[in-house]
Write a structure and sequence with these properties.
Largest sheet: 8 strands, antiparallel
Distance between the termini: 15 Å
Structural class: alpha+beta
Shape: globular
CATH class of the largest domain: Alpha Beta
Helix content: 25-40%
CATH architecture of the largest domain: 3-Layer(aba) Sandwich
Number of strands: 16
Strand order of the largest sheet: 3-2-1-15-14-13-12-11
CATH superfamily of the largest domain: DD-peptidase/beta-lactamase superfamily
Strand content: 15-25%
């Protein structure tokens, strides 16, 4: 397969290194891991900055800080849910679901509710209700009329949001009148914390949210096996993703390399501050009533997680057949009336992640990997059909099947979607596509 010539790659790698070195020096984040990859190679794989900052705990000390390495692990939060989607498709393709559900049943409501009865149409669960507001502190609910399907769960088109993207959900979790919350915290790990009414009728719009947790529940209940074991058996081990750098729990191995979490501050003297880590870690089977948080499960180095992204790019048949990959990576909403406007009206658009038009009159869509799919060319040169996602502590990746290339960069610093991170992502993309343009390399795939 054609690739970027070595001399052009050397120049491009130097420009990218300078970009991230400047970002670290300017306190955008303590440090960054970043990778540019094709189907089989890590074309650029480097770091900038620190995992622990110099003089962070004591400004009067002479501590040199701890430089970041390629082996450090990050909690990649929502960026890791692409692995859960691949896992669900593997289970369907290989016939591993106990009720016989297959790829052909993506739109089969009856098969789905054999595994997830909470979505049984006409039932009493909040999962088949739409919240329309509040009356005297209680949610005003109406029944849904549209059957939920696995395709709907995988594309976030079943109306479920998150407490930090929906005012209605915020009122359920933290009522403004100070009364007792009606829902437990999602980070409690309780399955009950996944139960919310929809904010719109299923099948009408994309609402990014806890549908990811229900995809995790589908996988676990369909197989009778926990997510950690399933990911290890069907994804991590086949792709030789090192346990020293990638796991779903903070094991002793991960603890040795896990980068601390930081947040940006308004204090010019200490522009970055280390804060306690808030993610969950669970090595064994969850206790009854509890679950792994499927939407934010993975701790990994960037170089190791890119093994999965490369497998997706090359449509690796050690995981799934070519036809399933084609189904997984393309626009899953094509032929429907469901649109994902850019900029979005609510949710992550308030945080600037996708708050720029892709092209005049265009919008993004969603694929079965829970990724946004570009329906028009990006300002950086990234083409229609490319797809990617992000994680809470400013982890970003994109996969470009047209040119056979992709990238990922990671840090552990909030707040999510700060304009400096978005500018860094966009400039990184531009440098990648400038390398392609200058080397006149294009890989076209139908």
């Amino acid at each position: 397969m054609p690739t970027i010539p070595p001399d052009m790659l050397t120049v491009g790698a130097r420009e990218v290194q300078q970009l991230f070195d400047r970002a670290a020096a300017n306190h955008v984040a303590p440090g960054f891991q970043y990778v540019v990859f094709d189907e089989d190679n890590l074309l650029i794989n480097s770091v900038a900055g620190f995992s622990s900052l110099p003089n962070e705990s004591d400004p009067s000390s002479s501590s040199p800080g701890k430089p970041l390495t390629r082996e450090n692990a990050y909690w990649i939060a929502s960026a890791g849910r692409i692995a859960i989607s691949v896992l669900a498709l593997i289970i369907l393709e290989r016939g591993l679901a106990k009720n016989g559900m297959t790829i052909d049943d993506l739109d089969n409501h009856e098969k789905l509710v054999e595994i997830l009865p909470e979505f049984t149409l006409g039932g009493e669960s909040w999962m088949v209700k739409v919240i329309e507001g509040f009356e005297e502190g209680r949610p005003k609910l109406r029944p849904t009329i549209t059957p939920v399907t696995l395709r709907g769960i995988m594309t976030h088109t079943i109306g479920l949001a998150l407490p930090w993207t929906s005012e209605l959900y915020r009122q359920l979790c933290a009522p403004s009148d100070g009364s007792e919350p009606l829902r437990p915290s999602l980070m409690s790990g309780l399955i009950d914390s996944f139960i919310y009414p929809a904010i719109c009728e299923p099948g009408q719009c994309v609402t990014y949210g806890i549908a990811a947790e229900w995809l995790g529940q589908f996988v676990v209940r369909a197989t009778g096996t926990n997510l950690r074991k399933l990911l290890a058996k069907y994804i991590f081990e086949p792709l030789e993703m090192s346990k020293e750098e990638c796991d779903t729990a903070i094991t002793a191995n991960i603890q040795k390399v896990l980068a601390p979490t930081h947040v940006k501050t308004a204090d010019a003297r200490t522009p970055l501050k280390e804060i306690p880590f808030v993610g969950l870690s669970l090595e064994g089977d969850p206790e009854p009533g509890y679950a792994h948080i499927a939407g934010a499960l993975i701790y990994t180095s960037t170089q190791t997680f890119c093994k999965l992204l490369q497998a997706i790019l090359r449509r690796d048949e050690c995981l799934m057949k070519a036809g399933t990959w084609g189904l997984a990576t393309t626009d899953a909403l094509a032929g429907t009336s469901i649109k994902v406007p850019v900029p979005r009206d609510s949710g992550i658009s308030r945080l600037e992640y996708y708050n720029k038009p892709i092209d005049i009159g265009q919008s993004s869509s969603v694929n079965l990997l829970q990724c946004d799919v570009a329906l028009g060319p990006g300002l950086s040169g990234r083409p229609k059909g490319s797809f990617g996602w992000t994680g809470l502590l400013n982890v970003y990746f994109h996969i470009d099947p047209t040119n056979g290339i992709g990238y990922m960069f990671s840090t552990a610093c909030g707040p999510f979607g700060h304009p400096e991170f978005i500018a860094l992502r966009d400039e990184f993309e531009k440098l990648i596509y400038q390398m392609l343009e200058k080397s006149d390399v294009r890989v076209h795939r139908a």
